[in-house]
Amino acid sequence: MKNVTDIRADFPILSRKVYGKPLVYFDNGATTQKPQCVLDAVDKVYKEYNGNIHRGVHYLSDMSSEAYEAARENVRSFINAEKREEVVFTSGTTGSINGIAFSYGERYVKAGDEIILSRLEHHANIVPWQMMCERKGAVLRVIPINEKGEIVLDEYYKLLSPRTRLVSVAQASNALGTILPLNEIISAAHSANVPVLIDGAQGIQHGIVDLKEMDCDFYAFSGHKIYGPNGIGVLYGKEKWLAEIPPFQGGGDMVDKVTFEKTTYNELPFKFEAGTMNYPAAVGLASAIDYVLSIGRDYIASLENELLSYANERLAAIKDLTIYGRSEHKIPTFSFHIKDIHQYDTGMILDKMGIAVRTGTHCAQPVMDHYGIDGTVRASLCFYNTKDEIDALADGIEKVKTMLV
Ligand code: PMP
Q1: Which of 363, 367, 380 to mutate to test the pocket of ligand 1 (most atoms within 8 A of CB)?
Q2: Is the CB of 76 under 6 A from ligand 1?
Q3: Contact 168 CB / ligand 1 (< 6 Å)
Q4: Are residues 76 and 192 in the same domain?
Q5: Which residues pair with 218 in a beta bridge?
Q6: CA–CA dist 295, 316 (Å, integer)
């Protein structure tokens, strides 16, 4: 098993300095860094076999198409989807959710119908549904959260009704780190014959995603959140849904036969992949998945659990620091505020110490409204982070306090 020093050596950016200080990268919730193998895999596509996929008879196109379809199989196996037809490449989580909100809405949603979301959602899992509701005359219903930042399941059960058309919730909150009780959410929805979409943007990086076990109907994630390249994402959908709903984009590759009178669509999953897909990034994502598997998913989880408890301990000991999101079921993401100090000031001073954290609402304004705050400082950790880095953050926060209070 690789130790953390060896793991960090796989990520070239982690050894750089910022303002002459070693980089402490605690913004993994926004995007993760890339191991060398991912950079090499993308480079290799462009250097050795770049050709547009699925269209050519020539050697390069064939090689690119093969690598792209191998990447799909890689993703399928990683998330344990039953069929490759159920794995659609998109531009990212946002692209995947917008796609389903449009296509599912067109096919199944009518005026007066309801979509259930939670108050923990990222804007990417709110706004597309709002846009669809406006088009269709449907209504959003929102599962409330408690002070710890956990959804209130009893309220969720009350929201499920014969008018509910879909439930769409995050696997984990990007703003607070709370892991949602997906088993309860999905089984209650299914008992009411309601499908469920899981926004896996913050889940894919931290846990084992086994879609056969989870049994959600749709699952969305972004490659860049799991050490892969930007510009690639995945939309998983059970075949029975993907076969029924219309495409969300029209163009090349998603068609079977086109005339001006009528177009018939390609088979799954290509029906949802219009235009030139980002095949180099898909190949990079496959390499990121191989990397994660080579480190070991259980090992990653154990490293992250250790970081979670250590950071909990260190941050809890800091006077005048409030942590938002106190669920016991958390990813290693910490949203906090220091009394009388604006989050931007904290973030900017930490940055000058080489510590990258995020500040603001984290695209989750309803969560901030719940606490009556206008933002937090967020440190989001992953397995390549270290206890020394957590110490650097804790010391940095103390310095911020002496400078500004
Ligand atoms: N949902 C959640 C929970 C997220 O954390 C994010 C990214 N911060 C997104 C959706 C959107 O992901 P992307 O920008 O990669 O589409």
Answers
A1: 363
A2: no
A3: no
A4: yes
A5: 197, 237
A6: 30
